[in-house]
Specification:
Strand content: under 5%
Helix content: 55-70%
Number of domains: 1
CATH superfamily: Glycerol uptake facilitator protein
CATH class: Mainly Alpha
Structural class: mainly alpha
Radius of gyration: 18 Å
Largest sheet: none
Number of helices: 9
Number of strands: 0
Distance between the termini: 21 Å
CATH topology: Glycerol uptake facilitator protein
Order of helices and strands: HHHHHHHHH
Length: about 260
């Protein structure tokens, strides 16, 4: 790739609009993680015997995930694309919708926001442990990673469909679809792998809780699933708009 092209892409990542996008990702990821992890802490607090797994806590987690993700995606969509998830960002990179340099800044904003959100919860809610994503004893690390990958594939594929310009501008239905598949995924996989689908959320809670056990599960699987979803939707199923000759980013997806 020509040096001038690389320089142009990096310059695009340092524009005022780009920094607005990073800020939007930071804010939306912060509130997403704060609400999802906070709802888990709340449900455990209300359990008299302190059990970690109970049907009601699974439902609470799914509802919180669906509502929180729908809301923050809708809020940040027109500014940053409302990724709120390093896996979604990776999927958009693979699909050629944003540059690698921009994606790295997105990842940085998302991860820092997740850590700060979990830190806030630890400071504000004294005496309540910040929960981390764990895999069930019936699951192997490989199996859990595969499960997270399949779920993330569905999430990223839905994001692509919601953002497809052929479907018109994103309305509240698009954001609701993204949140709904996330909530359904938690119901399907919560007891087995946690249903994270979000490396930043998993990393933030693990860093504050001080336990990185099986952390690779929540990175490898989701990133692979997101990459396959991006390639399949944009290259096979529904070819995207022609990419810009300099940045390689479709005009409708520029950030």
């Amino acid at each position: 790739m020509a040096p001038s092209s690389l320089s142009s892409r990096f310059h695009d990542s340092l524009t005022r609009q780009a920094f607005r996008s990073y800020l939007a990702e930071f804010i939306s990821t912060f509130f997403y993680v704060f609400l999802v992890i906070g709802s888990s802490m709340s449900s455990r607090k209300l359990m008299a015997d302190g059990r970690l797994l109970e049907p009601s806590s699974l439902v609470v987690g799914a509802i919180a995930n669906a509502f929180a993700l729908s809301s923050v995606v809708f809020l940040a969509w027109d500014i940053s694309g409302g990724h709120v998830n390093p896996a979604v960002t990776f999927g958009r990179v693979v699909g050629g919708h944003i540059s690698v340099s921009t994606a790295l800044f997105y990842w940085l904003a998302q991860i820092i926001a997740s850590v700060i959100a979990c830190l806030f919860l630890k400071i504000l809610v004294v005496g309540v442990h910040v929960p981390t994503y764990t895999i069930a004893v019936e699951m192997t690390g490989f199996g859990a990673s595969m499960l997270e990958g399949v779920l993330t594939f569905g999430l990223v594929y839905t994001v692509y469909a919601a953002k497809d310009p052929k479907r018109g501008p994103l309305g509240w239905m698009g954001a609701l679809a993204i949140g709904s598949i996330a909530g359904a995924s938690v119901l399907a996989a919560g007891p087995f792998s946690g249903g994270s689908m979000n490396p930043a959320c998993a990393f933030g809670s693990a860093s504050i809780a001080g336990s990185f056990k099986n952390q690779a599960v929540y990175w490898v699987g989701p990133l692979i699933g997101a990459a396959i979803a991006g390639l399949l939707y944009d290259r096979v199923g529904y070819p995207s708009q022609t990419a810009d000759s300099i940045s390689g980013i479709a005009e409708g997806d520029r950030v």
